[in-house]
Design brief:
The chain is an all-alpha fold and about 325 residues long. It is about 60% helix and about 0% strand. The longest helix is centred in the C-terminal third of the chain and has 31 residues.
Protein backbone atom coordinates (compact mmCIF):
# COMPACT_ATOMS: atom_id res chain seq x y z
CA UNK A 1 0.00 0.00 0.00
CA UNK A 2 1.17 3.51 -0.74
CA UNK A 3 0.63 6.17 1.88
CA UNK A 4 0.36 9.95 1.78
CA UNK A 5 1.94 11.75 4.74
CA UNK A 6 -0.23 14.67 5.76
CA UNK A 7 1.14 17.70 7.56
CA UNK A 8 -0.06 19.69 10.55
CA UNK A 9 -0.28 23.14 8.98
CA UNK A 10 -0.66 24.98 12.28
CA UNK A 11 2.44 23.29 13.68
CA UNK A 12 4.46 24.30 10.63
CA UNK A 13 3.50 27.94 10.95
CA UNK A 14 4.56 28.10 14.61
CA UNK A 15 8.00 26.53 14.18
CA UNK A 16 11.00 28.61 13.10
CA UNK A 17 14.11 27.11 11.55
CA UNK A 18 17.49 28.54 10.71
CA UNK A 19 19.26 27.96 7.41
CA UNK A 20 21.74 25.51 8.97
CA UNK A 21 19.04 23.54 10.76
CA UNK A 22 16.98 23.12 7.62
CA UNK A 23 19.90 22.26 5.36
CA UNK A 24 21.53 19.85 7.79
CA UNK A 25 18.30 18.07 8.63
CA UNK A 26 17.31 17.80 4.99
CA UNK A 27 20.68 16.33 4.13
CA UNK A 28 20.54 13.81 6.98
CA UNK A 29 17.13 12.60 5.93
CA UNK A 30 18.06 12.44 2.25
CA UNK A 31 21.26 10.55 2.96
CA UNK A 32 19.67 8.07 5.33
CA UNK A 33 16.86 7.52 2.89
CA UNK A 34 19.36 6.35 0.27
CA UNK A 35 21.04 3.67 2.39
CA UNK A 36 18.90 0.99 0.79
CA UNK A 37 17.59 2.96 -2.18
CA UNK A 38 21.09 2.70 -3.67
CA UNK A 39 21.59 -0.78 -2.28
CA UNK A 40 21.55 -2.47 -5.65
CA UNK A 41 23.48 0.02 -7.69
CA UNK A 42 26.91 -1.51 -8.15
CA UNK A 43 26.34 -5.20 -8.71
CA UNK A 44 26.80 -7.01 -12.02
CA UNK A 45 23.64 -7.15 -14.09
CA UNK A 46 22.28 -9.86 -16.30
CA UNK A 47 21.78 -9.07 -19.96
CA UNK A 48 18.05 -8.44 -19.47
CA UNK A 49 18.64 -5.83 -16.76
CA UNK A 50 21.22 -3.73 -18.64
CA UNK A 51 18.62 -1.01 -19.24
CA UNK A 52 18.63 -0.30 -15.50
CA UNK A 53 21.89 1.61 -15.99
CA UNK A 54 19.93 4.17 -18.00
CA UNK A 55 17.41 4.52 -15.18
CA UNK A 56 20.08 5.09 -12.51
CA UNK A 57 21.74 7.84 -14.53
CA UNK A 58 18.38 9.42 -15.39
CA UNK A 59 17.15 9.29 -11.78
CA UNK A 60 20.43 10.69 -10.44
CA UNK A 61 20.14 13.65 -12.80
CA UNK A 62 16.49 14.20 -11.81
CA UNK A 63 17.50 14.51 -8.14
CA UNK A 64 19.80 17.37 -9.10
CA UNK A 65 17.07 18.93 -11.25
CA UNK A 66 14.72 18.86 -8.23
CA UNK A 67 17.26 20.61 -6.02
CA UNK A 68 18.13 23.12 -8.74
CA UNK A 69 14.43 24.02 -8.96
CA UNK A 70 14.19 24.54 -5.20
CA UNK A 71 16.39 27.60 -5.53
CA UNK A 72 13.56 29.41 -7.32
CA UNK A 73 10.74 29.26 -4.80
CA UNK A 74 12.31 29.78 -1.38
CA UNK A 75 10.72 32.56 0.67
CA UNK A 76 12.92 35.65 1.23
CA UNK A 77 14.94 35.48 4.45
CA UNK A 78 14.63 31.73 4.95
CA UNK A 79 17.07 29.76 2.77
CA UNK A 80 18.26 29.78 -0.80
CA UNK A 81 16.44 26.50 -1.28
CA UNK A 82 12.79 25.96 -0.39
CA UNK A 83 12.23 26.19 3.36
CA UNK A 84 9.11 26.04 5.59
CA UNK A 85 7.61 28.81 3.46
CA UNK A 86 7.71 29.25 -0.30
CA UNK A 87 7.46 32.29 -2.53
CA UNK A 88 7.13 32.46 -6.30
CA UNK A 89 8.40 35.79 -7.60
CA UNK A 90 6.67 35.74 -10.98
CA UNK A 91 4.74 33.65 -13.50
CA UNK A 92 7.93 32.37 -15.14
CA UNK A 93 9.15 30.91 -11.83
CA UNK A 94 5.70 29.43 -11.22
CA UNK A 95 5.58 27.72 -14.60
CA UNK A 96 9.12 26.37 -14.86
CA UNK A 97 9.44 25.25 -11.25
CA UNK A 98 6.16 23.37 -11.74
CA UNK A 99 7.40 21.74 -14.94
CA UNK A 100 11.00 20.89 -14.03
CA UNK A 101 10.47 19.99 -10.38
CA UNK A 102 7.12 18.29 -10.93
CA UNK A 103 8.38 16.05 -13.73
CA UNK A 104 11.46 15.12 -11.69
CA UNK A 105 9.52 13.80 -8.71
CA UNK A 106 9.90 10.26 -10.04
CA UNK A 107 13.61 10.32 -9.14
CA UNK A 108 13.67 8.59 -5.74
CA UNK A 109 10.83 6.15 -6.57
CA UNK A 110 12.79 5.08 -9.65
CA UNK A 111 15.74 4.22 -7.45
CA UNK A 112 13.41 2.26 -5.18
CA UNK A 113 12.11 0.23 -8.10
CA UNK A 114 15.61 -0.42 -9.48
CA UNK A 115 16.88 -1.65 -6.12
CA UNK A 116 13.88 -3.90 -5.57
CA UNK A 117 14.04 -5.12 -9.16
CA UNK A 118 17.60 -6.29 -8.60
CA UNK A 119 17.54 -7.40 -4.98
CA UNK A 120 14.09 -8.87 -4.28
CA UNK A 121 13.49 -11.63 -3.52
CA UNK A 122 16.66 -12.60 -1.62
CA UNK A 123 18.51 -15.48 -3.27
CA UNK A 124 17.77 -18.86 -1.70
CA UNK A 125 21.42 -19.56 -0.92
CA UNK A 126 21.83 -16.16 0.77
CA UNK A 127 20.99 -15.62 4.43
CA UNK A 128 19.38 -12.46 5.73
CA UNK A 129 22.64 -11.60 7.54
CA UNK A 130 24.68 -11.96 4.33
CA UNK A 131 22.20 -9.82 2.42
CA UNK A 132 22.29 -6.88 4.85
CA UNK A 133 26.02 -7.22 5.53
CA UNK A 134 26.79 -6.84 1.84
CA UNK A 135 24.44 -3.86 1.52
CA UNK A 136 25.89 -2.20 4.61
CA UNK A 137 29.53 -2.60 3.54
CA UNK A 138 28.72 -1.11 0.16
CA UNK A 139 26.56 1.78 1.32
CA UNK A 140 27.41 2.87 4.85
CA UNK A 141 31.11 3.88 4.64
CA UNK A 142 30.54 6.57 1.94
CA UNK A 143 27.38 7.60 3.71
CA UNK A 144 29.22 8.31 6.97
CA UNK A 145 32.06 10.08 5.15
CA UNK A 146 29.64 12.54 3.58
CA UNK A 147 27.62 12.85 6.76
CA UNK A 148 30.74 14.13 8.48
CA UNK A 149 31.56 16.40 5.54
CA UNK A 150 28.11 17.94 5.73
CA UNK A 151 28.58 18.43 9.49
CA UNK A 152 25.30 16.76 10.31
CA UNK A 153 26.25 14.37 13.10
CA UNK A 154 25.07 16.65 15.96
CA UNK A 155 21.60 16.82 14.42
CA UNK A 156 21.23 13.17 13.48
CA UNK A 157 17.93 12.86 15.30
CA UNK A 158 16.65 16.30 14.34
CA UNK A 159 13.32 17.07 12.77
CA UNK A 160 12.75 19.41 9.84
CA UNK A 161 9.61 21.15 8.73
CA UNK A 162 8.48 18.61 6.12
CA UNK A 163 9.46 15.54 8.13
CA UNK A 164 7.44 14.37 11.12
CA UNK A 165 9.14 10.96 11.05
CA UNK A 166 12.63 12.25 11.90
CA UNK A 167 15.40 10.43 10.04
CA UNK A 168 13.14 7.48 9.15
CA UNK A 169 10.74 9.45 6.94
CA UNK A 170 12.07 7.88 3.76
CA UNK A 171 11.24 4.43 5.10
CA UNK A 172 7.52 5.17 5.57
CA UNK A 173 5.11 4.26 2.83
CA UNK A 174 7.54 2.96 0.19
CA UNK A 175 6.73 -0.74 0.31
CA UNK A 176 4.37 -0.22 -2.61
CA UNK A 177 7.28 0.56 -4.93
CA UNK A 178 9.11 -2.58 -3.81
CA UNK A 179 6.03 -4.68 -4.53
CA UNK A 180 5.56 -2.92 -7.87
CA UNK A 181 9.13 -3.72 -8.94
CA UNK A 182 8.70 -7.38 -8.03
CA UNK A 183 5.39 -7.54 -9.90
CA UNK A 184 6.87 -5.99 -13.06
CA UNK A 185 9.83 -8.33 -13.01
CA UNK A 186 8.04 -11.58 -12.20
CA UNK A 187 4.44 -11.27 -13.31
CA UNK A 188 4.19 -8.62 -16.05
CA UNK A 189 4.34 -10.45 -19.39
CA UNK A 190 3.44 -7.61 -21.76
CA UNK A 191 5.23 -7.41 -25.06
CA UNK A 192 7.35 -4.37 -25.88
CA UNK A 193 4.70 -2.44 -27.92
CA UNK A 194 2.16 -2.67 -25.11
CA UNK A 195 4.67 -1.60 -22.49
CA UNK A 196 5.66 1.31 -24.71
CA UNK A 197 2.08 2.55 -25.15
CA UNK A 198 0.93 2.00 -21.57
CA UNK A 199 4.17 3.44 -20.19
CA UNK A 200 3.87 6.59 -22.30
CA UNK A 201 0.24 7.12 -21.28
CA UNK A 202 0.98 6.63 -17.58
CA UNK A 203 4.05 8.87 -17.62
CA UNK A 204 2.31 11.72 -19.47
CA UNK A 205 -0.78 11.50 -17.27
CA UNK A 206 1.30 11.37 -14.09
CA UNK A 207 3.55 14.23 -15.24
CA UNK A 208 0.65 16.53 -16.10
CA UNK A 209 -1.10 15.74 -12.80
CA UNK A 210 2.08 16.28 -10.77
CA UNK A 211 2.96 19.53 -12.53
CA UNK A 212 -0.55 20.96 -12.19
CA UNK A 213 -0.79 19.99 -8.51
CA UNK A 214 1.93 22.58 -7.79
CA UNK A 215 1.06 25.10 -10.46
CA UNK A 216 -2.58 25.68 -9.42
CA UNK A 217 -1.52 26.49 -5.84
CA UNK A 218 1.67 28.44 -6.51
CA UNK A 219 0.20 31.91 -6.91
CA UNK A 220 3.07 34.39 -7.44
CA UNK A 221 3.57 37.15 -4.88
CA UNK A 222 2.09 35.19 -1.96
CA UNK A 223 3.72 33.25 0.87
CA UNK A 224 2.89 29.55 0.87
CA UNK A 225 3.39 26.78 3.42
CA UNK A 226 5.84 24.55 1.57
CA UNK A 227 4.54 21.08 2.59
CA UNK A 228 1.00 22.14 1.65
CA UNK A 229 2.21 23.55 -1.66
CA UNK A 230 4.17 20.36 -2.37
CA UNK A 231 1.52 17.87 -1.22
CA UNK A 232 1.00 16.70 -4.80
CA UNK A 233 4.73 16.03 -5.11
CA UNK A 234 4.88 13.46 -2.31
CA UNK A 235 6.50 10.27 -3.61
CA UNK A 236 3.59 8.19 -2.34
CA UNK A 237 0.78 10.06 -4.11
CA UNK A 238 -1.05 8.30 -6.93
CA UNK A 239 0.15 10.80 -9.55
CA UNK A 240 3.78 10.17 -8.63
CA UNK A 241 3.13 6.42 -8.80
CA UNK A 242 1.70 6.80 -12.32
CA UNK A 243 4.65 8.97 -13.39
CA UNK A 244 7.23 6.54 -11.99
CA UNK A 245 5.54 3.40 -13.30
CA UNK A 246 5.19 4.85 -16.77
CA UNK A 247 8.83 5.95 -16.91
CA UNK A 248 10.06 2.57 -15.69
CA UNK A 249 7.98 0.71 -18.28
CA UNK A 250 9.43 2.92 -21.02
CA UNK A 251 12.97 2.12 -19.90
CA UNK A 252 12.20 -1.61 -20.05
CA UNK A 253 11.59 -1.14 -23.79
CA UNK A 254 15.31 -0.50 -24.37
CA UNK A 255 16.62 -3.71 -25.95
CA UNK A 256 20.34 -3.10 -26.26
CA UNK A 257 22.62 -5.93 -25.08
CA UNK A 258 24.75 -3.38 -23.21
CA UNK A 259 24.45 0.27 -22.26
CA UNK A 260 27.13 2.62 -23.68
CA UNK A 261 30.29 2.69 -21.60
CA UNK A 262 29.67 6.26 -20.44
CA UNK A 263 26.19 5.36 -19.15
CA UNK A 264 27.55 2.28 -17.39
CA UNK A 265 30.31 4.34 -15.78
CA UNK A 266 27.88 7.04 -14.61
CA UNK A 267 25.62 4.34 -13.22
CA UNK A 268 28.51 2.83 -11.27
CA UNK A 269 29.40 6.23 -9.79
CA UNK A 270 25.83 7.41 -9.22
CA UNK A 271 25.86 6.86 -5.45
CA UNK A 272 28.95 9.01 -4.95
CA UNK A 273 27.57 11.61 -7.36
CA UNK A 274 24.38 11.81 -5.36
CA UNK A 275 26.19 12.16 -2.05
CA UNK A 276 28.37 15.05 -3.21
CA UNK A 277 25.94 16.98 -5.40
CA UNK A 278 24.94 19.56 -2.75
CA UNK A 279 28.56 20.77 -2.66
CA UNK A 280 28.50 21.58 -6.37
CA UNK A 281 24.88 22.75 -6.52
CA UNK A 282 25.45 25.94 -4.52
CA UNK A 283 28.34 26.97 -6.75
CA UNK A 284 26.36 26.57 -9.96
CA UNK A 285 23.31 28.31 -8.49
CA UNK A 286 25.51 31.34 -7.81
CA UNK A 287 26.95 31.26 -11.33
CA UNK A 288 23.74 30.66 -13.30
CA UNK A 289 21.27 32.60 -11.17
CA UNK A 290 23.34 35.49 -9.83
CA UNK A 291 26.40 35.94 -12.06
CA UNK A 292 24.90 35.07 -15.43
CA UNK A 293 21.33 36.00 -14.38
CA UNK A 294 19.81 33.41 -16.70
CA UNK A 295 16.01 33.28 -17.03
CA UNK A 296 14.36 30.54 -14.99
CA UNK A 297 13.59 28.38 -18.02
CA UNK A 298 17.33 28.14 -18.77
CA UNK A 299 18.80 28.51 -15.27
CA UNK A 300 17.25 25.39 -13.72
CA UNK A 301 18.44 22.89 -16.37
CA UNK A 302 21.83 24.63 -16.60
CA UNK A 303 22.34 24.31 -12.85
CA UNK A 304 21.31 20.65 -12.93
CA UNK A 305 23.49 19.75 -15.93
CA UNK A 306 26.54 21.61 -14.60
CA UNK A 307 26.12 19.97 -11.19
CA UNK A 308 25.71 16.53 -12.76
CA UNK A 309 28.82 16.89 -14.93
CA UNK A 310 30.86 18.29 -12.03
CA UNK A 311 29.83 15.41 -9.78
CA UNK A 312 30.64 12.84 -12.45
CA UNK A 313 34.10 14.28 -13.09
CA UNK A 314 34.82 14.54 -9.35
CA UNK A 315 33.63 10.99 -8.67
CA UNK A 316 35.61 9.70 -11.66
CA UNK A 317 38.83 11.34 -10.42
CA UNK A 318 38.26 10.02 -6.90
CA UNK A 319 37.66 6.52 -8.28
CA UNK A 320 41.34 6.31 -9.31
CA UNK A 321 42.45 6.66 -5.68
CA UNK A 322 43.06 3.31 -3.92
CA UNK A 323 40.27 2.59 -1.47
CA UNK A 324 37.95 5.14 -3.05
CA UNK A 325 34.99 2.75 -2.72
CA UNK A 326 34.88 3.68 0.98
CA UNK A 327 34.28 7.31 -0.04
CA UNK A 328 32.13 7.22 -3.18
CA UNK A 329 30.79 3.66 -3.13
Amino acid sequence: MLFVNFVNKEKLMKNKFTFNEIMRQQLVTLLLGTVFVFGGCNFPLGQYERNLDYIRVFACFLVMLVHASENFYGAPGSTDMAGPQSYLANEADRLWVSVYDGFSRMSVPLFMIVSAFLLAPIKEEQTMWQFYRRRALRILPPFFVFMILYSTLPLLWGQCFWNEYHMLWNFSGYLGYLVLAHYIRVHLTWERPRRLVVGAILMVAGAVWTILSFYVQAVPGELHVTPVLEIGWAFCTINCVLLTTGAFLLFTCIHRPEAPQLVTEMSRLSYGMYLMHIFWLGLWVSVCKQTWMLPTVAAIPCIAVATFVSCYLTAKLLSYIPGSKWVIG
